[in-house]
Amino acid sequence: MNIKVRYMFGKKKKETPAIDPVQKEMIENAQRRIKEKRGLFTHFVVFLVGAVGLIIISQVMMQVEPMKILNIEWWIWVLFVWLLLLIYHAFKVFITNRLLGPGWEKIQYDRLVQKQKDRIAQLEEKVATAHPLPDTKIITTSSSKKRIITMIAAAGANNELGKDGDLVWHLPDDFKRFKSLTTGHHIIMGRKTFESFPKPLPNRTHIILTRDKNYKTDVGIVVHDLSTALAAASSDEEPFIIGGGEIYKLGLEVADRIELTRVHGSFDVDTYFPEINKSNWKLIRTENHPADEKHQFAFDFETWERI
Ligand SMILES: NC(=O)c1ccc[n+]([C@@H]2O[C@H](COP(=O)([O-])OP(=O)(O)OC[C@H]3O[C@@H](n4cnc5c(N)ncnc54)[C@H](OP(=O)(O)O)[C@@H]3O)[C@@H](O)[C@H]2O)c1
Asked: Mind listing the pLDDT tens digit for each residue in 124-182?
């Protein structure tokens, strides 16, 4: 038999191998039978000794008029009753316990359980025939939809993003679109982008990435890697990665969609959006916005999806 040995607190500890439940039941049954037979044998020996003792006592008391019941001496009655008890004991061991023991009880129990199950199945069938349920359709709730991780950015013709911690254009309609897409969602950003906001963006959960373990803020969740950021946004079916340059680079590996505002122009910047590899990404929608009195530059709203 294979006995596993494992080390516990520096000492070898023997681990008892697992016993099959059927095997365990058989062993327990055998042990019980041995105990019963041993009990019967002890009873038999005590009976023999008792019988000899009673015979000796009766012989010693020969001189005294012995007590009789129905003209039979008392000790014969004692022996007779005892013999009956011994026979009853033997009957229990060899007949009752053997034939009507735990095995028999289990069979009876299983039979009863099966009967109940059959009865329940019959009742269910009756109810289903008498009162059929209307056709049910599987309703897909919003929670069963696939989660889409979206990167949202505005970049110039050469992927320019910003300079000195700020944007290099003012495009109100792009802000409006950013607001309408991200409101109600989790927005994941780098610490520098977070600090570039004059105040937190309303109705959005801010998740801030920093390597600084002591970084604290009251207005968002601070994390130290992108997978934790996404886990922190797990309740959101469309979390947004909103920049800046360092975080877009990380996000490009995990994002499913990019909402990119392509600004028509070249800019002097220090931060760039990563190159979109066209063998991995497909432009599925584009919408032009011309330059006007509020918008110095024309731009396109582009939606890219991972292939
Ligand atoms: N045009 C757009 O759509 C757009 C959007 C957003 C931002 N921007 C512009 O982009 C510029 C900011 O971008 P940025 O690239 O300089 O900074 P950023 O990406 O906003 O933040 C960089 C910071 O993120 C943290 N970080 C980066 N990688 C990390 C990692 N792997 N694990 C944990 N933390 C990490 C570090 O914070 P610690 O230093 O604290 O460790 C790092 O300094 C600004 O000019 C902003 O205006 C433009």
From this structure: 777 777 766 555 444 444 444 589 999 999 999 999 999 999 999 999 999 999 999 99
SS3 151: strand
Probe ligand 1: pick from 169, 197, 211, max atoms within 8 Å of CB? Answer: 211
- Taking CA atoms, 27 is separated from 17, 71, 95, 106, in Å, by 15, 51, 20, 16
Give me the helices (H) in the chain, please: 21-60, 74-91, 97-99, 102-130, 172-182, 191-196, 226-232, 245-251
The full set of domains in the chain, from first to last, is 5-100 (no CATH), 148-306 (3.40.430.10)
pTM of the full structure: 0.61
Ligand 1 atom with the smallest distance to the CA of 165 is 45
DSSP summary character for residue 95:
I
Using CB distances shorter than 6 Å, the residues near ligand 1 are 153-154, 161-162, 165-167, 189-193, 196, 209-212, 215, 224-225, 242-247, 250, 271
From 161, 261, 297, mutation site for ligand 1 pocket: most ligand atoms within 8 A of C-beta: 161
